[in-house]
Q: What sequence folds into this?
């Protein structure tokens, strides 16, 4: 059968990609070319595959961005300048390259890549100049035929749509066993092969469907490359759903623009993507503490009581998030307090700060018709409008009112929206929960001339950017708690995973979405501990809207949240730990205390993620790319570089876990386990299986009631020894980093630590230490199960010489 085009109208739900056959234009030949400062400008032709209307000239550009990154562009018309909110820049420093002709080919080479352009029939193939394989790692597909003169997957080209406009597509050959990752927050198996993926932002309603709040037009292949499609128009990826030898992506625009990023390591690919679209700044340190939220707290008394009870019971807490009822029972967003329910908001915020708890307020970018904020925006033309100039209505059911969206392409409108929020920051509000953003109208025209179709996916980026930049201007460090996102949204952290049901099934798909999102260049993301909505079973009993609370689910989800970049309990039901019974409350207290002890590790990993683009919650395949066993493992993950976490996602007390190659230490018992194998472990309700990678210098801080409660005193270093030299930097926001390093000298281990705020405790695992000396003074060793520890004054730094029994050292 033929490749089936997608009409433009079908990108507005419901989406149906199989109904229409349209005219195909196939990129067929290169007529001539010229060398430019950045690459090649080619004059090519497309032919009508079905209708014999003769060839048509089209421009194609190939630009060298770095030795590992090339940009491919093709347009049905001449290239026109376009605004890009996705890229950090439009021009790049020149990169050396060479061009030569060979028979039917044009060959461009950089110091790393060889790009072969076959002139007729057109085909682009890309090779690693220094790799072991003589085959291309990327090859446009031109031979995926069905019976007769038809394609299973049509080659690169254009196709006519119902309205007479053209869309564009690319087709790529795949290698046996190739896997694909990324595409944004996708609630499906980690490996996206054999999936059809749509980049079109929607309010998902759950976290188990193909729909997505956060579409990122970027993916990574195990062939060693990534593709970033530089477009905000709707995109459909068919990753093997039409053919077993090809994948394709189809953009509802007449211009194709994508960056091919070669690694071959996944980490280098992510770096290449972030070099193009930006790195995430480190969120404020306090944001890594525990957040309490509910949909929703409906009065000042209730908010103050929750915080007081949390402190009374000894639960660590840093943020309380108030959903839209701070503005009353609707409509929302008015950005004005309901003075009946919250009679003294500034006094409430001041009281919360006296308890060392910050306030986060819910907003969305839609203004209710008739409200004061709406009338002000309407008078100044700050709303997204129809072609006739009237405000374009937003279809959104949560607020239960007629709404219009702020037009963030208008700088004056963005500044005006910020001015409303500034009043709240001046009261002491610390952050905003930037909910929604996925419903921007498609029939609209924006202030900068872009259409609703082009802006729909982009709107979440501009919305969150506007709010993030306001908080950064006010505090020096920016923060949002956003639901929607697009490419570049990593520049405006943090996001959370959307509206999950209270079920273990959706806890599992929430993890899958988090892993896919991390492989899309976004390091920081949280999720609703306990699930946002009621349990699915409750919907069968409408006369009982408050389904029974699931303590087991809450505990398992809170354990998962403890080892996530950001930790927020939220839902339609109460999510305070003490509301789930004494057993659940005690388990929650155990993990919340651990969360705060983990802060030196968490914050240090956050700093590294902001520098590298690597996610804090990462799939095993990111660190173990050459291990085929990890290619589709998505029910466990690595938290930062050193912790392997296996959340329990069923009502079981056992868990099957894969330990990658190397040595791993049980986080709780310190028992050493060899890797490269699957194991079965016990997982009683109070136990989350966690391992530490051998060779890690792992920092732990003191127990704290809130993040800023005190310095890292004592600072504990747990050293899980290996035969390699190791070092670590322990970051603490504005304070100097603490550096720790150990190396071997014969049978001795030398440990050096720069000054710490106070007491330093050193725990050693994996070797037997006979003696320890510092400045020629013998230090007594104290025994603990499976290790020894030393307690020292670290304020001046230390250099320790540790004598180790060689026969027990790791060789």
A:
């Amino acid at each position: 059968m033929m490749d089936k085009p997608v009409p433009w109208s079908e990108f507005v739900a419901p989406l149906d990609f199989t109904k229409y056959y349209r005219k195909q234009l196939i990129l067929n030949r290169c007529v001539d070319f010229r060398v430019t400062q950045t690459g090649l400008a080619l004059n090519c032709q497309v032919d009508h595959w079905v209708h014999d209307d003769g060839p048509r000239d089209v421009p194609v550009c190939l630009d060298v961005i770095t030795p590992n990154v090339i940009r491919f562009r093709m347009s049905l018309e001449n290239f026109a300048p376009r605004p890009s909110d996705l890229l950090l820049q439009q021009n790049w420093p020149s990169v050396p390259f060479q061009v030569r002709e060979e028979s039917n080919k044009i060959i461009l080479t950089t110091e790393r890549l060889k790009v072969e352009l076959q002139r007729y029939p057109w085909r682009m193939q890309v090779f690693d100049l220094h790799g072991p394989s003589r085959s291309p790692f990327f090859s446009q597909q031109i031979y995926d035929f069905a019976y007769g003169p038809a394609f299973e997957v049509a080659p690169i080209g254009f196709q006519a749509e119902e309205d007479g406009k053209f869309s564009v597509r690319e087709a790529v050959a795949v290698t046996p066993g190739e896997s694909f990752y990324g595409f944004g927050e996708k609630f499906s198996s980690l490996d996206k092969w054999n999936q059809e993926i749509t980049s079109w932002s929607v309010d998902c309603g759950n976290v188990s469907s193909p729909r997505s709040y956060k579409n990122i037009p970027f993916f990574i292949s195990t062939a060693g490359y990534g593709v970033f499609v530089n477009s905000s128009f709707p995109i459909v990826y068919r990753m093997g759903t039409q053919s077993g030898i090809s994948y394709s992506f189809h953009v509802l625009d007449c211009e194709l623009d994508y960056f091919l990023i070669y690694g071959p390591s996944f980490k280098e690919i992510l770096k290449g993507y972030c070099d193009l679209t930006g790195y995430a700044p480190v969120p404020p340190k306090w944001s890594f503490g525990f957040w309490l939220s509910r949909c929703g707290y409906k009065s000042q008394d209730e908010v103050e009581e929750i915080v007081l009870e949390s402190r009374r019971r000894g639960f660590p807490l840093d943020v309380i998030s108030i959903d839209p009822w701070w503005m009353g029972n609707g409509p929302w967003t008015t950005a004005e307090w309901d003075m009946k329910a919250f009679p003294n908001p500034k006094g409430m915020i001041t009281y919360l700060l006296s308890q060392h708890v910050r306030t986060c307020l819910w907003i969305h970018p839609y203004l209710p018709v008739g409200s004061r904020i709406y009338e002000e925006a309407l008078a100044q033309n700050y709303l997204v409008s129809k072609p006739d100039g009237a405000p374009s209505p937003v279809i959104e059911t949560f607020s239960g009112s007629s709404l219009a969206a702020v037009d963030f392409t208008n700088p004056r409108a963005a500044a005006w929206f910020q001015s409303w929020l500034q009043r709240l920051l001046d009261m002491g509000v610390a952050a905003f929960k930037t909910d929604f953003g996925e419903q921007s109208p498609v029939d609209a025209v924006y202030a900068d001339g872009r259409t609703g179709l082009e802006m729909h996916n982009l709107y979440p980026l501009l919305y969150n950017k506007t709010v993030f930049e306001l908080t950064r201007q006010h505090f020096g460090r920016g923060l949002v708690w956003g639901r929607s996102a697009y490419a570049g949204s990593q520049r405006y952290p943090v996001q959370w995973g959307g509206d999950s049901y209270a079920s273990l099934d959706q806890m599992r798909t929430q993890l899958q979405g988090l892993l896919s999102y991390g492989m899309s260049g976004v390091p920081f993301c949280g999720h609703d501990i306990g699930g946002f909505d009621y349990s699915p079973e409750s919907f069968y009993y409408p006369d009982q809207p408050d389904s029974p609370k699931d303590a087991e689910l809450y505990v398992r989800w809170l354990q998962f949240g403890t080892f996530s970049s950001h930790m927020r309990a939220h839902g339609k039901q109460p999510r305070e730990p003490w509301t789930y019974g004494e057993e659940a409350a005690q388990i929650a207290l155990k993990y919340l205390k651990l969360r705060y002890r983990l802060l030196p590790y968490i914050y240090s990993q956050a700093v590294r993620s902001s520098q590298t683009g690597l996610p804090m919650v990462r799939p095993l395949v990111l660190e173990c790319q050459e291990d085929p066993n990890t290619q589709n493992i998505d029910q466990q993950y690595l938290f930062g570089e050193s912790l392997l976490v296996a959340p329990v996602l069923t009502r079981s007390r056992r868990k099957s876990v894969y330990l990658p190659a190397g040595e791993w230490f049980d986080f709780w018992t310190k028992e050493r386990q060899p890797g490269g194998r699957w194991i079965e472990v016990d997982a009683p309700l109070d136990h989350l299986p966690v391992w530490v990678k051998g060779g890690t210098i792992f920092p732990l801080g003191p127990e704290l009631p809130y993040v800023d409660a005190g310095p890292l005193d004592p600072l504990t270093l747990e050293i899980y020894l290996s035969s390699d030299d190791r070092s670590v930097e322990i970051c603490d926001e504005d304070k100097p980093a603490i550096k720790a390093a150990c190396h071997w000298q014969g049978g001795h281990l030398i440990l050096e630590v720069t000054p710490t705020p106070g007491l330093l405790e050193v725990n050693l695992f994996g070797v037997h230490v006979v003696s320890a000396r510092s400045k020629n003074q013998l230090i007594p060793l104290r025994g603990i199960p499976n290790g020894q520890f030393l307690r020292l004054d670290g304020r001046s730094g230390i250099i320790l010489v540790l004598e180790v029994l060689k026969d027990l050292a790791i060789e």
Remarks:
- DSSP finds twelve helices and 48 strands in the chain.
- The domain at 711-808 is CATH 2.60.40.1180 (Immunoglobulin-like).
- The two ends are 60 Å apart (CA to CA).
